[in-house]
Design a protein that fits this description.
The structure is a single chain. The chain has 498 residues and is α+β, with helices and mostly antiparallel strands. The chain folds into 3 domains: 33-129, Phosphorylase Kinase, domain 1 (2-Layer Sandwich); 136-307, Transferase(Phosphotransferase) domain 1 (Transferase(Phosphotransferase), domain 1, Orthogonal Bundle), CATH 1.10.510; 314-491, Orthogonal Bundle (Recoverin, domain 1), CATH 1.10.238. Helices cover 43% and strands 13% of the residues. Strands 3-7-8-6-5-4 form a 6-stranded mixed beta sheet. The protein has a two-stranded antiparallel sheet with strand order 1-13. The chain starts with a strand and ends in a 7-residue tail after the last helix. Monomer. Its EC number is 2.7.11.1. Keywords: ATP-binding, Calcium, Kinase, Metal-binding, Nucleotide-binding, Repeat, Serine/threonine-protein kinase, Transferase.
């Protein structure tokens, strides 16, 4: 069953919340360092930086190959899109990089890392993280059916990722088991992938047929739909987890006919599952999109809440909360380096405890932490006034972009032990990222390019940042000055052991 994608819709390349913003940065406080800032188009040859390995998959959207990043020996994947397979206008507009623009805006534990992207005479390339557990489709084939606890754990992660995406005004449009990858084989830890069909949305309806017919919502074939179409796809996945096969099958045309008047007998097909599980299935597979449950409400459904338990010990919570309470904002250049190391260098397995606590504090599963969620955490262990003080203090120090909530990487920056972030190896990799011409120093233009993403940082501001690190005054930053910046920060902190 293939993926369908109409070509008549103009891709939206710019997130709605960035339209109209100033592109000139004058003051250090205006600098915002999200993980997406460090996703750059590499104008060199991809073959000079990567050794291509096994083909992991191929289809209409290109070929996926495992690759080795030569400077670090890290294993990644590269998505290769042949220009010969694209209409000429899409080659000229480079519309395949819409996926890059979307992934640069997201920061969530159930969404993939993106590293960089390339173009040459024959192909476009997007370099992403390698997830080694296989896809959910293969897991379904292997396991056949899932118990309710397993199904709830899977659906909680998919719905949490979608709650976050929909909150960021992103619609995926091709949610299916093949696009849900397991991070490793021995656990149900998932990430939503393949944003080729995804787009930003605003008010009103989306048009054009995108997705895979078997998982496609009925309203898509009618030509007008919203982000709620992703929820129907989740319903089909949950049905398959319980029953072992989809509720219908056939050719694309046959499925389109079924979707005109879909009839799924949940009572008969899923007779053995609990009442709450059936209730969620009915709400996910509601044919009327105006009555269908949202991703956020589905995350909070009693079945998810009762069956999926966030496994984190009290001592793990205590240690992470201690570090969060002691976190203080630092200079912007240190903030940038920490963000880069956490989001692009560190193995996510190194901060699994912090991720679990993030998910615990994020009680409504929208992928961000608000002051009220922090307050709810603290008021169970201290007087209200003290809990309010700590929640305000943490928001002031951890919410570096001042958007009113703590993003995932902001939380990690506030809770991962600094000594774990600033290892010798991590600092060298971070230095090499900024040292674009590999001459052993970070020059003025390299620092400016490394810290910006389309915006223009004034020469005066770059000079001020450079002077914070360039202790010998030679106009550039060497590896020793770079390391001293982070070592000084470590020495000035009171590190709390786990």
């Amino acid at each position: 069953m293939g993926n369908l994608c109409s070509r008549d819709q103009i891709p939206v390349a710019l997130p709605p919340n960035l339209k109209g913003k100033s592109n000139i940065i004058y003051n250090e406080d205006e600098l915002i360092f999200s993980p997406g800032i460090f996703v750059k188009e590499n104008e060199g040859s991809i073959y000079s930086l990567y050794k291509f390995d096994t083909v992991l998959g191929s289809g209409r959207n290109g070929t996926i190959r495992k690759c080795i990043h030569k400077p670090t020996n890290d294993e990644r994947v590269v998505k290769i899109i042949s220009k010969a397979d694209l209409p000429p206008d899409e080659v000229i507009t480079r519309s395949v990089f819409k996926e890059v623009e979307i992934l640069k805006t997201v920061d969530h534990p159930n969404l993939p890392r993106i590293y960089e992207f390339f173009e040459d005479d024959t192909n476009f390339y997007i370099v992403l993280e390698l997830l080694t557990g296989g896809d959910l489709f293969d897991k379904i084939v292997e396991q056949k059916v899932f118990n309710e606890a397993q199904a709830a754990e899977i659906m909680n992660q998919i719905l949490s990722g979608l709650t976050y995406l929909h909150g960021k005004k992103i619609i995926h449009r091709d949610i299916k088991p093949e696009n849900i990858l397991l991070t490793k084989k021995d656990a149900f830890e998932l990430k939503i992938i393949d944003f080729d069909s995804a787009t930003f949305f605003s008010s009103g309806y989306n048009r054009g047929i995108y997705g895979t017919p078997l998982y496609m919502a009925p309203e898509i074939i009618k030509g007008k739909y919203t982000e709620i179409c992703d929820i129907w796809s989740c319903g089909i996945i949950l049905y398959i987890l319980f029953v072992g096969h989809p509720p219908y099958d056939g050719t694309d045309d046959e499925i389109f006919e079924i979707l005109k008047h879909p009839k799924i007998n949940i009572e008969k097909d899923c007779a053995y599952i609990s009442k709450d599980a059936k209730d969620l299935l009915y709400k996910l597979l509601e044919p009327d999109p105006n009555k269908r449950i949202t991703a956020k409400d589905a995350c909070m459904h009693p079945w998810i809440r009762s069956k999926f338990h966030k496994r984190v010990s009290s001592i793990e919570i205590k240690n992470v909360v201690k570090r969060m309470k002691n976190f203080k904002k630092t200079s912007k250049i240190r903030e940038a380096i920490h963000t880069f190391i956490i989001s692009k260098i560190m193995d996510p397995n190194q901060f699994k405890v912090e991720e679990k606590v993030f998910n615990l504090v994020d009680t409504n599963c929208d992928g961000i932490i608000t002051q009220n969620e922090l307050l709810d955490l603290f008021k169970n262990e201290m007087p209200y006034e003290e809990a309010l003080m700590y929640s305000e203090f943490i928001m002031e120090n951890a919410d570096s972009d001042k958007n009113g909530y703590i993003d995932y990487t902001e939380f990690l920056r506030a809770t991962i032990k600094s000594k774990k972030i600033c290892t010798k190896e991590n600092l060298l990799q971070a230095f090499n990222f900024f040292d674009e011409n590999s001459n052993g120093v970070i020059e003025f233009d390299e620092l400016s390019h490394g810290l910006s993403d389309g915006a223009v940082i004034t020469e005066k501001l770059i000079r001020e940042i450079m002077n914070q690190v360039d202790t010998n005054g030679d106009g550039c930053i060497d590896i020793y000055e770079f390391e001293d910046l982070l070592v000084d920060a470590l020495d000035s902190q009171t590190d709390i052991s786990i």
